[in-house]
Amino acid sequence: MTSLEVLTVGRVGVDLYPEQSGVPLAQVSTFAKSLGGTATNVAVAAARLGRRAGVLTKVGPDGFGTYVREALEGFGVSSKYVGTSPDLLTPVVFCELNPPADPPLLFYRSPIAPDLTIGEDDVPWSLTREVPLLWVTGTGVSAEPARASQRMMLANRARSGHTVLDLDYRPMFWPDVETARAEISWMLDHVTVAVGNRTECEIAVGTSDPDEAADRLLARGISLALVKKGAEGVLVATPEDRWTVEPNPVEVVCGLGAGDAFGGSVVHGLLSGWDPVKIARYANAAGAIVASRLACADAMPDQEEIEEML
Question: What is the sign, positive or negative, of the torsion defined by CA atoms of 79, 85, 90, 93?
């Protein structure tokens, strides 16, 4: 693979999706397997749009770890920086399509997920400093040693190129809200772009009001804030101006993965040098397409599908 344009850092897992929708997990009889995890899905989504993408993460020494590497390569994403934690298992995630728009998740990541054991020796330091776009996540600082490693990556990069923070808040990964806010907030001073929904903004900057959240994000030196408002669209804010981009209505099959499709399109738009509104429109369309499908990584759209929706 040629030199990377984007490196995402963080969560990976094997998603098991019910093949029966609208019923409790106890009544599901069959599941479909898919590659998952926020950082991983964003890389896949970017690769689907023609970007040279890689993931910095870790798996266990098991069959699911092998599956992760093979699936990444199959999607055109470099698995070169997928390490192995010898004493841990590759995470598995079950979802319950009840309700389909916001499915509950059941994470198997105990005693700790391999992707949270990324240490200093696992990091390709020159790559994380020089890659055109580095994508980090809130989950990535929920535990040590990944927290310290991700902090060092950001400090080492010094806001060069595009440095994107996906606020990515999952309450089950944190001891309390205060710890999450402190750790995610620290990263805001070291990135150029922030992406998150209302809940994630409230964790990061203390308010779920989109305009106030955007003000607080921009005050930290960020050049672009994308605040996802669900059915109300996306607030796009820069230090100079702000816009609301309308959503693309679809019949929701599974709400999971839509945000990661959005993220992959943000990557593509930033690397393409698009204006913020064009980025958000493209990302909105990508998210809507994935919401109308079952899986995450396997459901990521290509450019033709997105342009057709637009």
Answer: negative
As a whole number, the mean pLDDT across the chain is 93
Q: What is the per-residue pLDDT for 1?
A: 43
Cα 137–Cα 265–Cα 51 angle in degrees, nearest 5 = 90
The DSSP bridge pattern shows strands 82-84 and 77-78 to be unpaired
Distance CA 248, CA 246 (A): 7
Question: Which residue(s) pair with 136 in the sheet?
Answer: 165
Q: Which of 205, 206, 208, 243 is nearest to 224 (CA)?
A: 243
Rounded Cα distance between 162 and 179, Å, is 26
Say if residue 243 is exposed, middle or buried (CB neighbours under 10 Å; 0-12, 13-18, 19+). Answer: middle
SS3 309: helix
Residues 263-282: pLDDT tens digits? 999 999 999 999 999 999 99
The answer to pTM > 0.90 is yes
- Helix intervals (H) in the chain: 38-48, 63-74, 125-130, 146-157, 177-188, 198-205, 210-218, 258-272, 276-291, 303-309
End-to-end CA distance of the chain: 31
State the amino acid at position 51 in one-letter form: R
